[in-house]
Amino acid sequence: MKTELLKQWRTSIALTGLLAGALTISACQQQQETEPSLEDSISAEQSVPMSAEPAEPNDVVVDTQDPTLNEVESDTVASVNTGVNQITYSCSPELTVEATYKDADNQVVIATAKGTTTLTKTNDATNPEVFEAANAIEGGEGFIQWRVAHQERETGVMRTAGTDATNVSTYECKKTEEGAV
To answer: What is the Cα–Cα distance from 39 to 18, expressed in whole angstroms?
Structure first.
């Protein structure tokens, strides 16, 4: 009796496996969806009654005497793609750097509380971009180097030295705000 029961189980399991396999294969096959024909689309369109009256105008009247308009006007910043981009950095040790990038000229103007100078790009890379000048930030003897990294020029490192080229000051900077000039 046990062998007869085992044969029935074996047959049931084999049939169940075949059925599961057939379902899996049929579920995996792509079926092409029918698209509605042009005639079906045209007949499905419904006509909308049209009015003989003209539509109301959508003209907006601006009151130039409105004081809130002047506030909005002074708050609005126009963004023009001029190839000049100004970014403010907060540096450590404490220093604020305003960098005005002139991409067409491969230059950056660095402005700090210590002074302002124009640096020229010395490499073709974009990460990092390296700018240098053969004068100190105050304009005297020395050098200044500005390395800026990441796609959006998010971080920078400024190295400066005066007449003593061995006494180099290094500032690590992070972008705080950006604007077009």
So the answer is: 44
Residue 142 carries which side chain, given as an amino acid letter?
A: G
What is the model's pTM? Answer: 0.52
Helical residues (DSSP H) of 29-146, grouped into ranges: 38-44, 67-75
With CA atoms as reference, report the closest residue to 178 among 96, 99, 93. Answer: 99
- pLDDT per position as a tens digit, 40-73: 655 555 555 555 565 555 555 555 555 555 554 5
The residues near 160 (Cβ < 8 Å, ≥ 6 apart) are 136, 137, 142, 143, 144, 145, 168, 169, 171
SS3 48: coil
Question: Any idea which residue has 């909005």 for tokens?
Answer: 72
DSSP 104: G
